[in-house]
Amino acid sequence: MSKTSDKLLLIKTILSNPQIVKVNPFINMFLIKYMKKFNIVNVGGHLVLHSHLPPVNSQAFSRFIDEHLLAKTQGPTHAQVGITNICPQNCTYCYNKNRTGRIMDKNIIKGVIKDLKDMGVIWLGLTGGEPLLNKDIVEIVDTIGDNCTVKLFTGGYNLTRELASDLKKAGLFYVSISLDHWIEEEHDKIRRCKGSFRTAIEAIDIFNEIGGIHIGVSTVLSRSMFNTGHIEEFVEFMIKANVHEVWLSEVKPAINPLWDKNIIITEEERIELIKLQDWYNKQGQITINYLGHFESGEHFGCNAGHKMVYIDPFGEVSPCVFAPITFGNVNDESVKILFAEMKKHFPPNNCCFVNKNYKLFARHYKDQLPIGKEDTLKMMNEVHFGQMPEFFKLFYK
Length: 397
Ligand code: SF4
What we know:
The chain has 16 helices and 11 strands.
């Protein structure tokens, strides 16, 4: 990014959030350095760095400054809520596979969302299953309100122009459409669902026609895709498809068939992906948002259980979508209490909790995921964490 655009970004952010000048100057310097890795994209007046943070000129970003950077609330910044377990796809790496229980109804979901916002959540991901198959999705999005950014993770099933338009009116701004390959047959094979590639592409087209929505594609990278050098071809395909962002994450050892060290990305591969992200972001045609960069020790680290919470479609409360453990169920206890109990076990951490501790999942697993609360608590006596990430060194100073 040029010096002129650096200054412009800084001015725009300060003008949108004048209270930022009260934040610890070392944190502000850290944030500016981090922001310089990305281009600011203007989508319908929203200034977006990347979709893991609210737009910098949004009410949600203002709340991030007020409640987290200034008031240092104990609550999470990020949450994901599974609003259905139904999904037409059958992905090999699905973190919700074979979960059972009493599905959360609309009122429970709305109550959980209200509690999450009270606790400080400024970014809320709706996931599943296929969230568009929840018939109440527009009402759910509508209850979230303007001061919390909503991101929809979807395969595009059930999407019509009318539904996309209703979701936008209700406050949806970020959409992340699942796409794992630029070749139709390959994508459908990974998702074990014929037609899923076409559905995803149609969803991208619909959101493009509606306009004013930030369109991302979320891609779960296997090591083989990375090592065959196919990511570049994939990104080029996405540029042509007119998406704003490619959100890259890796296959994680989240479920029993994946509890294997060979699926975990190596440090060298992680660094290569960061280089790839930086290169594309400098070109400015598309944003690459690699989670392994955001969650690295040099930046914000693993936020699982500390600033991140996942509530699965059955109400189980976990530190992260990929961590197959539960600290209790919102059908029995409020998410506020469950999060506070969970947080005691999770310091900020420069290593991915799931990658570091998946062998313990195998040891405490009893034929059902997530691992129940009692066994989760036993397991927490044995878990390992890394060091404090750079952001939190400044935050807790
Ligand atoms: S456990 Fe891993 S995937 Fe989950 S929030 Fe931490 S770094 Fe991210």
